[in-house]
Design a protein that fits this description.
By secondary structure, the protein is of the alpha/beta class. Helix content is 26%, strand content 24%. An 8-stranded mixed sheet has the order 9-6-10-12-13-14-17-18, sandwiched between helices. Helix 6 links the parallel strand 20 (290-294) and strand 21. Helix 4 (165-175) packs parallel to helix 9 (378-391). It binds glutamic acid. Residues 84-86, 129-131, 161-163, 186, 188 line the site of glutamic acid.
Length: 416
């Protein structure tokens, strides 16, 4: 029987049976992606291939299943805004690569359980890998989110690549006063892999989107098992592993709470802003010309000088330990602040709080006008700098805002 790439087939050879999806082959072998996620390459001679399901029939069936779902009375309305990334991707049978080509509707087709939680509408805002995100895309995304809320969405899910999710989530957190949950979700492993975290993360995200947690959050696997997802506050979360399913961690904070995957129950530990406590507002001006600079031993102060001379409007330094740079960087910090370019000092340690009052380099950094980033993550300090300078042009007022806690990005007291 004829088969083509993307069909589900059974291949039988020498008494052994392989079942899976036909992948592209450059060697003449029949390549089958099996349920285990592994590919089998089978010499066609003497092999019998039976088509179990045509690719086109599988796609049709999935489409029909979703199209047949009528809005259910009494369920909340959730909008899925898709920006791309692994969660919104599928196998490209031409190349065998995972490509970002799903629309938001395709997410519902892939995860029909979602339709039990809410009535969904979906929009593909972008179809990009998140390394291609930019500050003006955050603005567009924030505007699209606000539009959905104005149109009556009870919750928003943003499907996003995991690599830069923490930047986009922090940006939206500063840009929007939200009366409803705005939940970022992604996946570390694509849907074609048996270890995919795609469905569980999306289902847990939907639970949070219909909850009373009216903040910008990131919902991803808590552990490598499928027990629960963490609900991370957008300004306290970081991707801490390249590939593990539990890559996302709250830093200098506990997560707001957890979603139990089997019961769908949400438990919370931290206090949070509740549904309808805030009125919807959008503050989407942003200053993209800000830099995050990592200090390394022996690195030239010219690095800082470059950003000052290139007209950057704000600089975040990722210093060492309690918030240090070498003595020869300090005159450049002073030059920046004299030119009314705010400088925030954060730490490469990530965990813990900046304290520039202990060692003499620290004291000199403060004398040069740098702002202690407290327990803020360097990336969050950068996004906060961009947002603050987008809102306020006056240097002293901007410095005042940078020192204040706006979205729980600064804890008054540190965790041990
Ligand atoms: N690098 C891509 C991104 O961040 C894919 C990885 C992912 O989605 O986890 O969009």
């Amino acid at each position: 029987m004829d088969y083509e790439e993307g069909d589900r087939v059974k291949v039988e050879k020498s008494g052994v049976e392989y079942e899976g999806i036909v992948m592209p082959s450059t060697t003449g072998h029949i390549i089958v992606k099996m349920v285990s996620g592994y590919n089998a390459g089978i010499e066609p001679e003497g092999a019998t291939v039976t088509v179990v399901q045509k690719k086109t029939d599988m796609e049709e069936a999935a489409k029909k299943a979703v199209n047949e779902v009528k809005p259910k009375k009494g369920l909340p309305k959730v909008s899925i805004l898709s920006t791309g990334g692994t969660i919104a991707s599928k196998i490209d049978y031409r190349t065998g690569a995972v490509t970002s080509q799903f629309s938001a509707d395709d997410i519902l087709q892939a995860i029909p359980e979602l339709t039990e939680i809410a009535n969904f509408s979906g929009k593909a805002i972008y179809n990009i890998l998140s390394e291609n995100m930019k500050a003006d895309y955050w603005q567009e995304l924030a505007r699209a989110v606000v539009e959905e809320i104005k149109n009556g969405a009870d919750g928003i899910i943003v499907a996003h690549g995991t690599d830069t999710m923490m930047y986009s989530a922090a940006a939206l957190s500063f840009m929007i006063d939200t009366p409803v949950p705005i939940v970022f979700v992604g996946s570390q492993r694509s849907a074609d892999r048996p270890s995919s975290d795609n469905a569980m993360n999306a289902i847990c995200a939907a639970k949070v989107a219909v909850s009373d947690i009216a903040e910008v959050t990131v919902v991803m696997h808590s552990e490598s098992s499928d027990d629960k997802c963490s609900i991370h506050r957008a300004t306290k979360v970081r991707k801490m592993h390249t590939s593990r399913r539990d890559a996302f961690r709250s830093i200098n904070s506990e997560p707001i709470g957890y979603v139990d995957y089997s019961t769908g129950e949400i438990t919370t530990g931290l206090s949070y802003v509740k549904r309808n406590e805030r009125e919807l507002a959008l503050m989407d001006s942003i200053e993209p010309k800000c830099a995050l600079v990592k200090f390394t031993p022996g690195s030239s102060p010219d690095i800082l000088g470059f950003f000052i001379d290139a007209g950057y409007k704000g600089i975040v330094i990722e210093g060492t330990g309690l918030g240090h740079v070498s003595t020869d960087w300090i005159p450049q910090i002073e030059r920046a602040t004299e030119q009314k370019i705010p400088v925030i000092i954060t730490s490469q340690c990530l965990n813990g709080r900046i304290c520039d009052r202990v060692y003499d380099t620290g004291r000199d950094i403060l004398k040069a006008g740098a702002i202690e980033g407290e327990d803020m993550l360097p990336e969050v300090a950068l996004v906060k700098m961009m947002w603050t300078l987008g809102q306020i042009q006056n240097y002293d007022d901007a410095v005042d805002i940078l020192k204040q806690d706006i979205r729980c990005e600064i804890n008054e007291r540190s965790l041990e």
